[in-house]
Design brief:
Blueprint lengths: L38 E7 L2 H4 L2 H9 L5 E7 L6 H5 L5 E5 H10 L4 E9 L2 E6 L14 E5 L4 H12 L9 E5 L2 H10 L3 E6 L2 H8 L4 E5 H7 L7 E8 H6 L1 H20 L1 H10 L5 H7 L5 E4 L1 H18 L19
Parallel strand pairs: 1-2, 1-3, 6-7, 6-8
Antiparallel strand pairs: 3-10, 4-10, 4-11, 5-8, 5-9
Amino acid sequence: MKKFLVLLLCTATLFCAGCGATNQPPSDTPSVNQNEEVTIRLGGLKGPTSMGLVKLLADNEAGTTSNQYEFSMAGSADELTPKILKDELDILAVPVNLGSVLYNNSNGAVQLLAVNTLGVIYLVENGGQTIKDWNDLKGQTIYATGKGSTPEYALNYLLEKNGLDPAADVTIEWKSEPTEIVAQMAAQDHTIAMLPQPFVTVAQSKFPNLAISLDLTKEWDKLNNGSQLNTAGLIVRTAFAKEHPQAVAAFLKEYEASTQYVNENVAEAAKLVEKYDIVDAAVAEKAIPYCNIVCVTGQEMKDSVQGYFQVLFDQNPKSVGGTMPGDDFYSLGN
């Protein structure tokens, strides 16, 4: 899979007075200074959605990036999404369907730049290894988080596509947060659960016999439905992208390099993950290989996300903001 398609650089030159400029008719196209120094205000959430940023942040501190970056992090998307709508952030890493919700609720004020995290959700089993495939889940209880959001829709979709009725063939007990599931594991001999990374790694540190039974990303890929299980993406303020296309293109190039570094230098990247207070280095080092950190852009991004959104929309239109986003939601670099 191609990891990225670099945005085509848009060029337009600002002419200053005294450089022989002549009067030009007004244009709706924003002027762009090729040599401008742009500060991009980034936002991210604690967890895999921000892990791919850490090398870029370190390079920014070292003064080797094309742009200047300011980074804000929070534990909840609710803390950051108002800021991008108020022009207090320029680029934000969020659950990819939340980008569609924001687009639909703001008259297109944001666009999707890239998918930065594929599926980070796993079905795990503690106290035995009885789950080899989906059929083994019949009659079982699954502890899970994310009711009413994409984890529920993804689980239901995969159960149905593998011949199981989520309402009749399994019992799903929803918990408010992953720590409750970890507590449940401590209270009983055998537990089947749906957990995201890095909580899978945290649980494995507490329960050495805990095993990953099914990788939901790989199970989704097996369906060959033209889409991918996308967890998170990078959204940009539409106005910012139009005003600073070169800066956005440079960001994507530097971000792609950052994700490559994280995936290829796990131990070193884990230290940076801890430095930027995302998660402890010991947890990050074990979790990164299972976090599916990527940088998917352009048409490949659009094709993947549109198919994924269609699955979510068919289950609950509110999951993508009530309607499928228009083509202008996808920033393809042209």
